Amino acid sequence: VTHAEAEFRSQPVEIITIGDELLLGFTIDTNGAYLGRKLAQIGFVVARRTSVGDDTAAIETAVREALLRTGAVITTGGLGPTTDDMSKSAVARVFGRELEIDQEHVRWMQERWRTRFGKEMPASNMAQAALPRGAKKLANNHGSAPGVFIEDKRGWVAMLPGVPREMRGMTDDTLVPLLESHVPQHGTIRSYTLRTVGVAESLLGDMLKDIELPAGMSLAYLPAPEGVDLRLTIRGSNASVADASLAQVGTAVRDTVGDAVYGEDDDDLAAIVLQLCRNGKHTIAVAESCTGGLLGARLTAIPGSSDVVLGGFIAYHNDVKREALGVSERDLRESGAVSEPVVRQMAAGAIERLGSTCALAITGVAGPTGGTPDKPVGTVWIASSVNCDMHSRRLSLIGDRDEIRRRSAQAALEMLRRRLM
Amino acid sequence: VTHAEAEFRSQPVEIITIGDELLLGFTIDTNGAYLGRKLAQIGFVVARRTSVGDDTAAIETAVREALLRTGAVITTGGLGPTTDDMSKSAVARVFGRELEIDQEHVRWMQERWRTRFGKEMPASNMAQAALPRGAKKLANNHGSAPGVFIEDKRGWVAMLPGVPREMRGMTDDTLVPLLESHVPQHGTIRSYTLRTVGVAESLLGDMLKDIELPAGMSLAYLPAPEGVDLRLTIRGSNASVADASLAQVGTAVRDTVGDAVYGEDDDDLAAIVLQLCRNGKHTIAVAESCTGGLLGARLTAIPGSSDVVLGGFIAYHNDVKREALGVSERDLRESGAVSEPVVRQMAAGAIERLGSTCALAITGVAGPTGGTPDKPVGTVWIASSVNCDMHSRRLSLIGDRDEIRRRSAQAALEMLRRRLM
């Protein structure tokens, strides 16, 4: 399933992310992904994303090339207080302008340091107030470095900070409104994602090989330890037509894939489980061995989880399983910590001690060591109890320690979701 | 602090990561970062990283341009079983070759499906066995799509899968040994990172503004919720000379920054704390409210943590703080759940119930709601107990819910590290 030819061209834009740390691999580029999502919503298609190092010449070349190709360029990085930042000089050169200190911004920063930190502003922050002559300042509500918007007859360049929280804030608060007012309406890119768990990418591909996609629509398979996302994307000039087309194909995909679909778009399985609990007036307790708190962290990452999640037990050591949760000494000895009787007693113990209506328990061999021929690395038992009715299941998971733990937490959440549906 | 001019050129290489999901922002590019780190270790410098969509023409153009610039190109993505994959056709065109089905690989895949999954191979997997004529197959020990290595007088292109686990395995098992034998030795890039916690980037910048760096060495500030990393990088023709130079400057940086440095390079604060516990024959219990298991998950993410971590309590609801940990009803009512007496009783309760020698407790307002004028969002109390000696501290953290939770867990670990030193 590939790009069918779109019936119109969206406004192309290029993203340039700047930093030696990106090329050397010490930082993962999350900014490019965030920008891509936000831009697609307002009808821009990212034609290319480029990462270059902290090197004025490399930045200048990349910005110049991108400006000639698309006339629309967004950079991230290189606006911060430390001296490895040189994006503004590079962009000033592309536009043949000087850098000037914005005195108003200097005063604002000095005031901010006094009131927020009770200190004089360090001299190294002064570089943050430099702007290419004639550039527009973009407000930063989450930090002290302003963004930059500069244009000439070739097109425009918007410069955002590299710190993700500041970049996201400036994109939402300032850049998106500016671009919406600045450029003519160029249609839209809409997407619809179905999130699946428990079925391999290639099996999903086989199930869906006969799905027909209209012109301009594509289907992508996005695998992660938590499951495979199926993302439908359509480019169109009319948002409601595009949405109707997505809804139609989305229903066909959902009908084909069936039970493995747990949600759509940005749905988080933990948030879905919490909502199902709320609807049924349930409360949750967890009992975790190999995941060591990951399942609790997933649930409590969701704002407002405190009306459902009572808490739980990290029963890592067998003594804790026995003493805090009441798991039987004999079952631990005879069946082992990774076994059906133990996982069921963990769930039952969490309910007994915390008085919740639901419980989830996990015990397994996350590796890299601890596997045996009977219970190799990846052997995990999960249990769920809903109104005192206990279910349990053995999983054989692949991946490294991190993946096995993430898959275990996801499988436990999915088990509870299916029971609460 | 910028790139001083290097005295020699490392072998430049370009990375091209392929997938609509990268440009639309539905997937974060972790592959580019992993490759950057691995390549730097064997003397390659990533000159540029480019992301393009699932579009044969765009892939072809990007590969052709990169091949002309550097003669050394690595692609990730587009080798999988689903039909949004088209990298191999594009690269075959760049080299003017046809795609051919590798029958040996088809037989291997068929056998693998029968023995591993007990099923016939889905027909859609056949595309994985296609290779440009004359290309070398790169073994994939973690999946069924082989990689590709192809070259002519312009240079070489290596194609790796997009699934991170497969990409990482192929890089380590196959690509790195191949490149080491294939290309002449071009010197090395060495780096040394000091990891800090608790001091703002701009203050670190001020502290370090007079540090002198020798030619070819750069210093980068890499901020994250867990703290700021200070990374020194040097390019040189001799690894031991480069390492000596890094060690010298690293010592000067460490002396200047002082206590805020908790580790170096890939050190994880949780792993450092576990090792300090092991040295002192300590065991740990945790009691978490706003972090909901995150601290336990950090500790148990480290392989072999089970000799130190006994377990803990996710005391999210006040009833759990009271009943599972013995926090006093009166203190909860009078001081509130986010208070010094409560955090100290949480830590004490965890020790009493689990019998550990150390405990960490966290209770706070992670937001977005729940803040008050007295205790705004970001107010967090942490406590640590070592051999029954209790310390506690109030934090005022900035950021969103996720950042506040991550900073809280990191601050608690750092509190214990300092006490165990």
What attributes characterize this protein structure?
homodimer; 421 residues; alpha/beta; six-stranded mixed beta sheet; five-stranded mixed beta sheet; globular
Explain this structure.
Two copies of one chain form a homodimer. Chain A is α/β, with parallel strands linked by helices. The first copy, chain A, is 39% helix and 26% strand. Chain A has 14 helices and 17 strands. In chain A, the strands form four sheets. Chain A has a six-stranded mixed sheet, sandwiched between helices. In chain A, strands 14-13-15-16-17 form a five-stranded mixed sheet, sandwiched between helices. In chain A, β16 and β17 form a beta hairpin. Chain A is globular. The interface between A and B is large, with 110 and 109 residues.
